[in-house]
C-alpha cells in the first residue's frame, strides 16, 4: 500500500506500518462468554488489515462495535499479539513503548482511584527509567494548569474531560510519536468533547504527534482526520482522504453510515437506515462481508472477498472493496 | 406498515381523567436529593414541560442537567433520598405526585419508559416472548393464551423476527434487545412513551433503525413521546418540540425548527455547535470552556453565567426569569429583552471556535 | 506489626480523601458499628494498660481474697478458686487474647493477601497451583491441625523466645492459627484481584511497561486494602475464638492467662458443679462480646464496600 507523499512528510517509510494483520479469538466459552453472546467457534476479529500512519498525520478508523476497531488498537499498542502480520513503528516491533501512547475510551476506568494524577503520569517514566521532570511538562502540555496543583489530586475530584486530559498527559510523558486514541471522547459530555478534540489537534500541530483516532462517529472522523479508514467485520472496506470518503462514499456500508447520521442542521434530510439488520455476531458471510445487509448485493458478491481497489472516480489513495462500486446510484 | 395494532388500540381513560386536558403536563417541578453528608441538592428546579398525543418532545442536556431525574419523577422511580419539593405532574388532568393520588400506583398503565441499558432491564433467564406476555398477563389481567398471542403480535410489530421469539435476551443483538424493550413498554398500551437515552448504546445504523421504529410507533399508536438524550441531532431528527436543560432548569424551549435554526440561549448555541456535522459539512466547532456546575454548590444568578461569553454582572447575581415570548416558546436569559412580544433577535455568543482538520 | 500497619493506613487515608476514609465515616454513622467500635476500643484500652486499670496480674501467691467469692462491691466479677480477682484476670486476659488475635490475623492477611494477589494476577498455572494449596488448607480442620502443630512448633522455636512480651507457648498458638486460616482470605483476595486485573488502569500500567510486582503493589493492593481490613477484623474474631479453645484445653500459657485459660481453670476447678457461675461468666462474656463486636465491624465494612462499589459503577 503506497501512500501519496504528504506535503509535510518525506516519502520514506510511514511512522506506523501495519501489514496483513489477522487476529482470531479462540473459542473459550465461560459464563462471561455466554452473557456476551460470543459463540463457540473462533471469531475472526481482524482479517488481513493493512494500515499506514505517517508522521504528524491523524488517521481515523471508523467502525461499529464488532468491526474489530478496538482489537486493531490493542494489536498496534502491543496489548495483544496478532496471529499473522506485521506491526512496525519506525521500523521496529510494537514493544517500543516510547513511541506509541494510548488513550482509552473510559477515563473513569483508566485512572486508578487510589493513585494521584502525578503518580499516574509518572508511571510510564518510572517503568522506563526516564527522568521525572516530564510529569509537569506533560500535565502542562495537556493543559492541566498549574501542573503542580494537579499532581497531588486524585481522580475523584476531576470531571470526565479533565480525567481524559490526565490520560493524555500520561501518554505524552513517554514522548510518543504516535498516540492511539480508542473512542477518546465518546464517554464525555458534548461540551467536554470539543476541549479534548482541540487538545488533540494542538498536540499534532505543536509537537507533531500522529494520532490513530478510533471512533464510531463518522462526523467526528471526517472533521478531525486527514484520512479515514472504514472497518467492517475486521476488514478495511474503504479508505481515503477524509473529504473524499465523506463527499463521495464508494462503499454501500460507508453510505449507510452516512445516511444514518443524524444532523442538527435544519436543512438536512432526516436519517434513514440504508442497511438491514446489524453487524453479524460470529459468522462472517462468504465473499463480501457486507452482502447480507447490503441493498446492492448481487450473486457475484458471495463468490470472493472483494479486493481493496481504487475507487471509481475517486482521488488519489481513495480505495474501496466493492465489486459494484462503479454501478452504485448517486447518493441523494 | 401494519396498522392492525393501531386499530386495536382503543384507550380507555382512567376514572376522573379529563380528555380535554393535556396528555402529560409537568409544571413547576422541583426535585431535590439529600446527600450522605446531609446537604440537599436540587436536581430539577422548577421545570415546565408538556406533551400531546402523537407529539414528540425532546428533553436535551448533558449529564447532571437533571433530565433523567425528570423521568424518575414522572415514573415515581426517584432514588430513596430524592423528593419532589414542588410542582405537579398531571396525566389528562390527574395528579401523579400527591400522596393518595389515584394514578400514583398505576401510572405505568398510562406511561411507559424505554431505558438505555436493555441487557439490564430484561430478565436474562426468561424468553423475550414470555417477558412481554408476562407483562400483559400481570398488568392487563389477560389470560395466558391471549397474552402470548398479543406478545407475538407486538414483537412482530417492533421487528423481532419470528424465529427469535423464543430467544433469551442475551441471544439477541443490541438493536433487537432494544426492540424487545419497546415491546415490553408498549405491552400495556400506554398513552405516553418516554425514551431515556434509548439509542445511546447503539451503533449509528442500528440507532437509525430504532429511531425509525419509535417514530412509526408514535404515529401508529398516537403516543406522546418524550425523548431524553444528550444528542441534539437525534432530537432534530425525531422531535417536534425541544427543551434544553442546564443544571436543573430549562433554559430554552420551543419548536425544533425555531430553536435549531435560530438558537438564542448561549448554552443552546454552544451545544448545537459543539460537535462537527458531516451531513451539514460543518467542521468548525464551538468550544465551551469549563464544566457543568456542581449541583450541590450552584453559582448564584444564572447557573450558566460562569461559562457564558455574554454574561455580565446581573447574570451572576439574579436568576434569569423564564419568559414565554410566543406560545410554548420560552427563554431564560438576561441578555434578551422580551418586552415587546416579538421574538427576540438571536445574539451570537462569541465562543472560541475551533476549525477541525485545518492544517 | 498490625498496629503499625493500621496507623500507616489511616494517615494515608487522611492524605487522600480516599474510599477508605468514606467507609470509616459511613461506619460511624451506623449504630451497631458504633457500639461495636466502642467495645473494641475499650477492650484495646484494657489490653494496652491493664496495670493502671486493675493493678498487676494476681497470681496464687499475690491473691488476697477468699476463694470463689460471688460478685460483690470489692470483687465485681467475683474471685476464682485461688482467691484471685476475676476482674483482674479478665482485664489482663484481654491483652493476651487481643494480641494473639491481632498477630494471627496479621499472619493470615500477609499470607492470604500475598498468595491471593499473586494467584489472581498471574492466573494460569500459578493460580491453579496456589489455589489447590489453599483448598488443601481450607479443608484441614484448624483445630486438629493446631493440636498437632502446637507441640511441634514449640520444639522448633524453643521455650525461651519472647516477642512483644508474648512467650513461646502463645507464639505457637499465633503461628498455628495464622498458618491454618489464610486460605479463605486468599480466596477473597484472589477474586478481587481477578476483577481488578481486567480494569483499564491495570491494562494501561502493563502497556507502559510496569512489572507485575509493581502493578500488584501500586494498583492491586491499594484497591483491595479496605477488603483486607474488613476480612482482617473478622479473622481477629475467629483467631480469638480458636485461641480460647486451645487455651481451654490446656495448650495456653499458665503464666500469661488468656480468657480461654481462665475458662479452662474454671472447668478444672469444677466451677459449674459448685455453682460458681461468675467464674465462667467473666471470661465467657468477654469472649462472646469481643467476637460479636469484631464480626459486626467486619460485616459492616463489607456491606459498605459493596454499596460503595455499586455507587461507583
List strands and helices in order, with pairings.
The complex is a heterotrimer of chains A (332), B (359) and C (313).
Chain A: E1 16-25, H1 31-35, E2 43-53, E3 58-62, H2 69-77, E4 84-89, E5 100-103, H3 107-110, H4 117-128, H5 134-141, H6 147-151, H7 160-172, E6 178-182, H8 190-207, E7 210-215, H9 218-224, E8 227-232, E9 235-241, H10 242-247, H11 252-260, E10 309-310, E11 319-320
Parallel strand pairs in A: 3-7, 3-8, 5-6, 6-7
Antiparallel strand pairs in A: 1-2, 1-4, 8-9, 9-11, 10-11
Chain B: H1 4-8, E1 24-34, E2 40-51, E3 56-60, H2 67-75, E4 82-91, E5 94-95, E6 111-114, H3 118-121, H4 128-140, H5 144-157, H6 174-186, E7 192-196, H7 204-221, E8 224-229, H8 232-238, E9 241-246, E10 249-255, H9 256-261, H10 266-273, E11 284-286, H11 313-317, E12 323-326, E13 329-331, E14 353-355
Parallel strand pairs in B: 3-8, 3-9, 6-7, 7-8
Antiparallel strand pairs in B: 1-2, 1-4, 4-5, 9-10, 10-13, 11-14, 12-13
Helix pairs in contact in B: 4-5, 5-6, 6-7
Chain C: H1 2-16, H2 19-28, H3 31-48, H4 50-54, H5 86-122, H6 124-139, H7 142-157, E1 162-163, E2 166-167, H8 168-180, H9 182-197, H10 200-207, H11 212-248, H12 259-268, H13 271-274, H14 277-312
Antiparallel strand pairs in C: 1-2
Amino acid at each position: 500500500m503506497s501512500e501519496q507523499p504528504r506535503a509535510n512528510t518525506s516519502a520514506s517509510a510511514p511512522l506506523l506500518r501495519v501489514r496483513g494483520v489477522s487476529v482470531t479469538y479462540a473459542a473459550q466459552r465461560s459464563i462471561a462468554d455466554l452473557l456476551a453472546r460470543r459463540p463457540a467457534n473462533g471469531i475472526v476479529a481482524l482479517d488481513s488489515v493493512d494500515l499506514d500512519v505517517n508522521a504528524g498525520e491523524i488517521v481515523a478508523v471508523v467502525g461499529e462495535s464488532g468491526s474489530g476497531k478496538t482489537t486493531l488498537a490493542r494489536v498496534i499498542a502491543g496489548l495483544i499479539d496478532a496471529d499473522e502480520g506485521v506491526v512496525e513503528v519506525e521500523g521496529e516491533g510494537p514493544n517500543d513503548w516510547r513511541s506509541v501512547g494510548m488513550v482509552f475510551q473510559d477515563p473513569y476506568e483508566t485512572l486508578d482511584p487510589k493513585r494521584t494524577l502525578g503518580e499516574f503520569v509518572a508511571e510510564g517514566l518510572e517503568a522506563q527509567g526516564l527522568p521525572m521532570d516530564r510529569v509537569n511538562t506533560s500535565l502542562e502540555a495537556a493543559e492541566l494548569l498549574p501542573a503542580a496543583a494537579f499532581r497531588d489530586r486524585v481522580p475523584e475530584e476531576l470531571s470526565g474531560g479533565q480525567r481524559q486530559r490526565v490520560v493524555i498527559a500520561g501518554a505524552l510523558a513517554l514522548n510518543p510519536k504516535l498516540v492511539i486514541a480508542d473512542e477518546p471522547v465518546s464517554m464525555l459530555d458534548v461540551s467536554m468533547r470539543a476541549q479534548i478534540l482541540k487538545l488533540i489537534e494542538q498536540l499534532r500541530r505543536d509537537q507533531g504527534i500522529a494520532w490513530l483516532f478510533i471512533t464510531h462517529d463518522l462526523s467526528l472522523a471526517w472533521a478531525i482526520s486527514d484520512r479515514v479508514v472504514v472497518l467492517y467485520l475486521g476488514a478495511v472496506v474503504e479508505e481515503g482522504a477524509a473529504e473524499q470518503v465523506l463527499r463521495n462514499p464508494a462503499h454501500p456500508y460507508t453510505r449507510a453510515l452516512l445516511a444514518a447520521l443524524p444532523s442538527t442542521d435544519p436543512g438536512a434530510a432526516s436519517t434513514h437506515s440504508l442497511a438491514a439488520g446489524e453487524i453479524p455476531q460470529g459468522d462472517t458471510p462468504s465473499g463480501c462481508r457486507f452482502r447480507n445487509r447490503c441493498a446492492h448485493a448481487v450473486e457475484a458478491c458471495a463468490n470472493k472477498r472483494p479486493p481493496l481497489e481504487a475507487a471509481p472516480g475517486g482521488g488519489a489513495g481513495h480505495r474501496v472493496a466493492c465489486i459494484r462500486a462503479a454501478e452504485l446510484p448517486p447518493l441523494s | 406498515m401494519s396498522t392492525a395494532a393501531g386499530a386495536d388500540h382503543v384507550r380507555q381513560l382512567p376514572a376522573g381523567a379529563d380528555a380535554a386536558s393535556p396528555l402529560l403536563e409537568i409544571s413547576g417541578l422541583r426535585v431535590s436529593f439529600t446527600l450522605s453528608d446531609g446537604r440537599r441538592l436540587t436536581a430539577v428546579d422548577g421545570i415546565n414541560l408538556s406533551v400531546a398525543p402523537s407529539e414528540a418532545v425532546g428533553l436535551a442536556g448533558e449529564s447532571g442537567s437533571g433530565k433523567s431525574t425528570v423521568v424518575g419523577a414522572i415514573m415515581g422511580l426517584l432514588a430513596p433520598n430524592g423528593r419532589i419539593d414542588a410542582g405537579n405532574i398531571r396525566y389528562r388532568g390527574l395528579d401523579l405526585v400527591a400522596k393518595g393520588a389515584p394514578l400514583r400506583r398505576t401510572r405505568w398503565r398510562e406511561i411507559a419508559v424505554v431505558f438505555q441499558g436493555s441487557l439490564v432491564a430484561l430478565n436474562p433467564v426468561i424468553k423475550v416472548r414470555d417477558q412481554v406476555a408476562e407483562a400483559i398477563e400481570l398488568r392487563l389481567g389477560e389470560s395466558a393464551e391471549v397474552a402470548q398471542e398479543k406478545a407475538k403480535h407486538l414483537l412482530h410489530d417492533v421487528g423481532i423476527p419470528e424465529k427469535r421469539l423464543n430467544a433469551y435476551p442475551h441471544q439477541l443483538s443490541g438493536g433487537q434487545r432494544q426492540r424487545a424493550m419497546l415491546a415490553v413498554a408498549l405491552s400495556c398500551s400506554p398513552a405516553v412513551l418516554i425514551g431515556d437515552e434509548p439509542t445511546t448504546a447503539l451503533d449509528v445504523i442500528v440507532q437509525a433503525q430504532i429511531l425509525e421504529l419509535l417514530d412509526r410507533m408514535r404515529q401508529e399508536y398516537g403516543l406522546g413521546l418524550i425523548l431524553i438524550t444528550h444528542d441534539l441531532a437525534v432530537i432534530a431528527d425525531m422531535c417536534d418540540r425541544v427543551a434544553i436543560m442546564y443544571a436543573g432548569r430549562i433554559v430554552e424551549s420551543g419548536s425544533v425548527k425555531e430553536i435549531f435554526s435560530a438558537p438564542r440561549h448561549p448554552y443552546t448555541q454552544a451545544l448545537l455547535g459543539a460537535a462537527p456535522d458531516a451531513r451539514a459539512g460543518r467542521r468548525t466547532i464551538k468550544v465551551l470552556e469549563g464544566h457543568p456546575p456542581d449541583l450541590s454548590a450552584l453559582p448564584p444568578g444564572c447557573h450558566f453565567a460562569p461559562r457564558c461569553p455574554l454574561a455580565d454582572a446581573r447574570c451572576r447575581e439574579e436568576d434569569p426569569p423564564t419568559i414565554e415570548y410566543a406560545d410554548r416558546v420560552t427563554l431564560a436569559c438576561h441578555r434578551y429583552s422580551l418586552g415587546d412580544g416579538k421574538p427576540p433577535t438571536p445574539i451570537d455568543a462569541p465562543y472560541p471556535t475551533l476549525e477541525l482538520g485545518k492544517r | 506489626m498490625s498496629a503499625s500497619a493500621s496507623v500507616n493506613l489511616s494517615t494515608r487515608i487522611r492524605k487522600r480523601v480516599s474510599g477508605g476514609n468514606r467507609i470509616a465515616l459511613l461506619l460511624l454513622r451506623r449504630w451497631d458499628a458504633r457500639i461495636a467500635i466502642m467495645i473494641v476500643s475499650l477492650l484495646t484500652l484494657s489490653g494496652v494498660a491493664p496495670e493502671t486499670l486493675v493493678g498487676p496480674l494476681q497470681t496464687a501467691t499475690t491473691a488476697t481474697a477468699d476463694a470463689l467469692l460471688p460478685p460483690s462491691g470489692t470483687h465485681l466479677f467475683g474471685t476464682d478458686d485461688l482467691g484471685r480477682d476475676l476482674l483482674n484476670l479478665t482485664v489482663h486476659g484481654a491483652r493476651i487474647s487481643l494480641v494473639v488475635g491481632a498477630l494471627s490475623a496479621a499472619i493470615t492477611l500477609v499470607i492470604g493477601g500475598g498468595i491471593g494477589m499473586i494467584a489472581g494476577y498471574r492466573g494460569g498455572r500459578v493460580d491453579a497451583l496456589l489455589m489447590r494449596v489453599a483448598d488443601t488448607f481450607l479443608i484441614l480442620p484448624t483445630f486438629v491441625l493446631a493440636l498437632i502443630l502446637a507441640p511441634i512448633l514449640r520444639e522448633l522455636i524453643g521455650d525461651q523466645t519472647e516477642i512483644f512480651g508474648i512467650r513461646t507457648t502463645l507464639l505457637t498458638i499465633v503461628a498455628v492459627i495464622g498458618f491454618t486460616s489464610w486460605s479463605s482470605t486468599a480466596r477473597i483476595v484472589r477474586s478481587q484481584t481477578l476483577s481488578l486485573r481486567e480494569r483499564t488502569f491495570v491494562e494501561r500500567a502493563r502497556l507502559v511497561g510496569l512489572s507485575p510486582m509493581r502493578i500488584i503493589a501500586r494498583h492491586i493492593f491499594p484497591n483491595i486494602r479496605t477488603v483486607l481490613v474488613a476480612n482482617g477484623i473478622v479473622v481477629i474474631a475467629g483467631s480469638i475464638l480458636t485461641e480460647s479453645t486451645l487455651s481451654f484445653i490446656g495448650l495456653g500459657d499458665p503464666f500469661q492467662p488468656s480468657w480461654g485459660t481462665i475458662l479452662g481453670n474454671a472447668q478444672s476447678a469444677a466451677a459449674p458443679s459448685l455453682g460458681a457461675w461468675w467464674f465462667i461468666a467473666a471470661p465467657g462474656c468477654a469472649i462472646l462480646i469481643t467476637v460479636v463486636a469484631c464480626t459486626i465491624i467486619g460485616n459492616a465494612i463489607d456491606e459498605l464496600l459493596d454499596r460503595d462499589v455499586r455507587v461507583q459503577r
